[in-house]
Amino acid sequence: MPTVYYIGDSTVAFNRIDTYPQQGMSNALGLYLRHGVGLAPHGLNGRSTKSFLDEGAFDPVRRSMAPGDILLIQFGHNDEKADPARHTDPDTTYKENLTFFISSAREAGALPVLITPIARRLFDENGAFLPSSHGAYPQAVRELGAKLGVPVADLTAITESYLAQVGDLPSKPWFMWPKDNTHLKPEGAVIMAGFLARELKRMGSPYGDLLYID
Known about the structure:
Blueprint lengths: L2 E6 L16 H5 L8 E4 L7 H6 L4 H6 L5 E5 L18 H15 L3 E5 L21 H12 L3 E2 L1 H12 L1 H4 L14 H17 L12
Parallel strand pairs: 1-2, 1-3, 3-4, 4-5
């Protein structure tokens, strides 16, 4: 059976009890995978595509990927930061780093999947959802996927629509509110991983073959 490698930032990271109730989508994605499908979570808090590469966090993934494996790639929250150790430009260095992840997967015989970052839970004083907190980064992912023939799970669009529909008050328990509106609690991780699982199912075989859901 294949292994699903999952790289990204804190919204992806597999959290232990020391950070509970904060959870990343890796904590929940395994609930949707068929028995025997491996999950290798490599998300790290605070990382961008740049810092993930510069710190060598991708090296063990490159060494381990094998033919038939899946590489899920989900960055953006920290690429947006002004911090020079993390910042990337959406039209240049962000795409270049994503391309390196993609080419590394393909060289190993693995299948890359690009994922746009999940929405931040931001509402105005009237309770209206505030979209587009990730600026040009989601569109950069969409463009790169189309250019390189890589499937894209557009979680930005999906989660922005969902939060706008659900509203301010009902969505608070899914995030580490009032501490912040980015990191997830267990139920939020399950919901967001469910959106990803449905997108993988929509992509058809072999991605959908990994999942329990219809």
